[in-house]
Amino acid sequence: MAALEKEQLLNVAQKAVETALARGAAEAEAYVYDGKATSIGIERGQITKNSKIVDRGLGVRVAVNKAIGFAYTNAMDRKTALEVTVLKAIGTARTSRPDPEWRGFPGKKPYSQVEDTFDRRIMELRSEDLVNTASVMLENAMEADKKVLAIEGGAGAAYQSVALANSNGVAAFDSGTIIECSLATVAKEGNTVTPVCFEFSSERSYKVDASWVGKEAARLAVSALKTKRIETKNTKLILTQFALQELLHYTLVNAVEADSVQRNQSPFKDKIGNKVASDAITIHDDGLLKGGLRTAVSDGEGSPRQKTLVIEKGVLRNYIYDNYSAKKEDKESTGNASRAGYLSTPSVEPTNFRIMPGNIAPDQLMSEMDEGLIIYYLQGAHSSNPVSGEFSVVATPAWKVEKGEIRHCSRGVMLAGNIFEVLRNVQLAADNERKIGELVSPWLLVENVRVIGK
Amino acid sequence: MKDILTRINNIATQKFGAEYSEARAQDLAKTMLTMKEGRVEAAKQGIENGVALRVLVNGAWGFASIGSLDEEVLADATSDACRMAKAAGLRLKAPIKLAKVKVVEDRVHIKASKNPSEVAMEEKIKTAAEINRSTLCYDKRIKSCTIDYLDVTGTSYFASSEGTWIEQDKLYVWARMAATASQKGIFASSREEIGSTAGFEVFDTETPVTVGTKLAKRAVEQLEAKTPKGGTFPVVLGPNVVGVFVHEAFGHLAEADLALAGGLLATSLGKKIGSDAVTFYDDGTLVGAFGSFKYDDEGVKTQKTLLVEDGVVKGLMQNRETAQKFNAEPTGNARAEDFRVEPIIRMRNTFMAPRDHTFEELVEDVKSGYYFKSFRGGQANLDGTFQVGIQEGYEIVNGEIGDPVRNASISGNTLETLFKIDAVGRDFELSPGRCGKGQTAFVCDGGPHIRVKEVIVGGSA
Predict the structure, then answer these.
(1) How far apart are CA A419 and CA A412, in angstroms?
(2) CA B455 to CA B237: how far, in whole Å?
């Protein structure tokens, strides 16, 4: 199936909205998705598979007497698909319960331009090109050191487009590409097997650095072979982007989402204007970031994406909103309604959650720390207390730094504390910004974190 | 459907010379519901139809997934899959081979006394509303209650070039409840899950009032709880925590694909890896359990698989590809979340077998330690490092259960910890859950209460 064009997708969305209104919905919204993804899989040191997914679907959300109903289908080639889905959404709304606080879908607003989110070269990639990318990555890892075992990974390219229309006249279209490669490695020496180490590169334009990913995944695994125990004490840490993403996703991100704040699930309730982090922390939620992994013109319900200042030099400035949570406070949406494709309704989520970089290089940051740990991978961050921010996680592994240099690694090290205290103890941000999921961040140097050794 | 899928497999084998081809179709309906503090955020209904085509050509896999049951579209997709397999196989050193399996023809019917597809949306909303009410009314300090409900019904189809044809009904009912409580700047959270392959009747035993009360009580209790001391302690673990430990810390290592990927168990068959009290199973045959089914997504019949007996490794969970490598039998553990993804080795209902201790006997010998009753999350690494976060725990002081503790977690090395299990209870309980391994699988895990001589307890003190 060839990719659908902009007009075709918008037509389906608008037709669904018109049909819903004609069939008795007070308000309606339609979301149409068309996506294609190709990937190459690596298993145990060799390329073993090549996959392709074509996914297409329609999600219709309607309001009837302030009750919300939603239906979706992926059976788009059935002639009756649109009509049946619309009727199901209306039927579901009729059996549901009214929401007194429902104040309608977003209205029409101008969209900003976005840059570097689409690359035709990615759309036109052949399987052989991706096999090549995966091979380059794999060869660089294997050639780096004989002790390295590439356990899994791959390369993938995807194109997706979304059309959204609602009964307030909103008509949005967005299309973008993404390409990525990743490699998980272990190193083996005698009976010692290291924890799984991992590196990846993910970009909207055709510029993934496969050889760097291979070399780095190998370097990390080999450097995890030499282990020594460390003592239980409070220490300085460098948190890399991997660790930050794990720790912040379940805690800080939750705390700034308006939905959590309104539902008393955020420690940041009534804290706008208060100091919540150290001076080194400035965070924007930037839905328009050039080349950002989550950059788009429109959010998941047609509100324009924007750049929102969340924390400024440690002071909390704004929460992030979707349309529903914004209207509750007579505010405007910050363009943070997110959808997991056509089969979900929107919810508040960050776009590109960007911790602003400092101006010190990573090796200088290590010198600055002098003695402490550097943390890449964490285990158990999802068991953090999302409301209080308390966490208790294992570093898999932690690397010990002395006199600014990595000396050895240590396994089974637990880190415990409260993420909001950690944010207040950030001393410095490095200049090595990178994108990982929703997070865009440099390394951060933090002091006084409780470390429980073995 | 059988004819179409058979013809599609024939294209792969006859036109492209595939050594194996399978077509897996689904025709499923889902109902979903999210309720927050009694407000229905959205009542949802969905249709998900599609076909997954997997072919083995010259020892490499090609896979195509498409949201269509149209024969022409499928014929194109299988041709694509064959060409892609050829591209993937260009630099193959060790071609993939599959273990032989019995050819099966079967039609699997599910008879639920309350099939969720026949339960009205009003009834589902009412059930969620009752859970919400029981939770929020339990105590003024409960601030929020989120309920997510999902049911899946329909049929899946499997046809292979070897002649296997299976038509299998699907039925899942699942709900997740989460509550938060706060008092004087202290925040606590609590969650529960319900999951069944039996039917909507699961709410007759897990009644809204029981579930809501359990959820709320735990959240409120944590407000008064202290944070535990960090360090090494003896602990008694409840079935819910034993379950996540068996699943995360051991189960993943016993998945043959991960064992081959450098995990600890690749060469452990027949070796002693835990104390005599340790016996583990992964069982897909338990009627109504959330991880049960009759055939896996490679057309292999499910079974009760013995993983560890009296501390000795007896088997791994195998798919057809790994079984060939290990010279073992496929165990029926190959599962795909839906038609968008390939089947991979997944757990089903994974548990520790009970022994003979009473709960009192387990606790009475602990001078200073913890009783961990319910988990918040768990994770493990291939090198055997595990971490389990605790949402409900208590001190044990001089053999008695003491004050509640909050935000504890345990960690250690799996194999070291398995040798430290010195007493196993006679009770037994399974908890439903969802396991993530790139895809989501519905599973259960559990066991009896157990005692572990020492484990690292992470706390903030």
Answers:
(1) 20
(2) 11
| Residues of B whose CB is below 8 A from A97 | 39-40, 125
How far is Cα of residue B305 from the mean position of the Cα atoms in its chain? 15
Whole-angstrom Cα Rg for chain A: 24
- Measured between beta carbons, the chain B residues lying within 8 angstroms of A58 are none
Is B461's pLDDT higher than 50? no
pLDDT at B460: 53
Structure tokens that stand for B409 in this block = 């977690």
Residue type, B45: Q
CA distances from A336 to A255, A326, A374 (A): 14, 10, 32
Whether residue A383 and residue B409 make contact (CB cut-off 8 A), yes or no, is yes
| Contact criterion met (CB < 8 Å) for B230 and A416 | yes
Q: How does pLDDT run across B156-194, given as a tens digit for each residue? A: 999 999 999 999 999 999 999 999 999 988 888 899 999
Q: Tell me how far apart the alpha carbons of residues B75 and A356 are, in angstroms, rounded to a whole number.
A: 50
* The pLDDT of residue B64 is above 90: yes
Residue A346 pLDDT greater than 80, yes or no = yes
Shortest Cα distance from B356 to chain A (angstroms)? 32
Return mean pLDDT, chain B. 94
Mean pLDDT, residues A43-57: 94
Q: What are residue A443's phi and psi, to 5 degrees? A: -70, 145
If you measure CA to CA, which chain B residue comes closest to A390? Answer: B407
pLDDT reported for residue B230: 81
Give the nearest partner residue to B460 out of A74, A193, A450, using CB atoms.
A450
What integer pLDDT is reported at residue B137 of this predicted model? 97
Q: Which of A186-190, A360-364, B67-71, B227-231 has the highest mean pLDDT?
A: A360-364
Q: How far apart are CA A164 and CA A10, in angstroms?
A: 7
Spell out which residues of chain B touch residue A247, defining contact as CB-CB under 8 Å: none
d(CA B54, CA A285): 41
**Percent helix / strand / coil, chain B, rounded to 5:** 25, 45, 30
Q: What confidence category does residue A454 fall into, taking pLDDT thresholds of 50, 70 and 90?
A: low
Strand partners, B196: B173
Phi, psi of B185 (to 5 degrees): 75, 0
A393 — contact with chain B (CB < 8 Å)? yes
This prediction has a pTM of 0.93
Burial class (CB in 10 A: 0-12, 13-18, 19+), A292: buried
DSSP secondary structure code for residue A117 in this structure = -
CA angle A370, A374, A380 (to 5 degrees): 150
> A67 to chain B: which residues are within 8 Å by CB?
40
pLDDT tens figures, A371-407: 999 999 998 888 788 788 888 888 988 999 999 999 9
Interface of A with B in 344-363 (CB under 8 A): 345
What tokens were used for A442? 């440099």
Kindly list the residues from chain A whose CB atom is less than 8 angstroms away from the CB atom of residue B39: 97, 99, 101
Residue A182 near chain B (CB below 8 Å): no
Instruction: For A335, list phi and psi in degrees, rounded to 5.
Output: 75, 35
Say which residues have a Cβ less than 8 Å from residue A362's Cβ, sequence separation at least 6: A430, A431, A432, A443
How many interface pairs between A and B have CB atoms less than 8 angstroms apart? 281
Residues B260, B265, B270: CA angle, nearest 5 degrees: 125
Residue A3 confidence (pLDDT): 66
Cβ-based contacts of A95 with chain B (< 8 Å): 43, 120-122, 125
Which of A46, A267, A390 comes nearest B92 by C-beta?
A46
Q: What are the residues whose beta carbons fall under 8 Å from the beta carbon of B153, sequence distance 6 or more? A: B28, B29, B115, B116, B117, B169, B170, B171, B172
Do A196 and B382 count as a contact with CB atoms less than 8 A apart?
Answer: yes
Q: What percent of chain B has pLDDT over 70?
A: 99
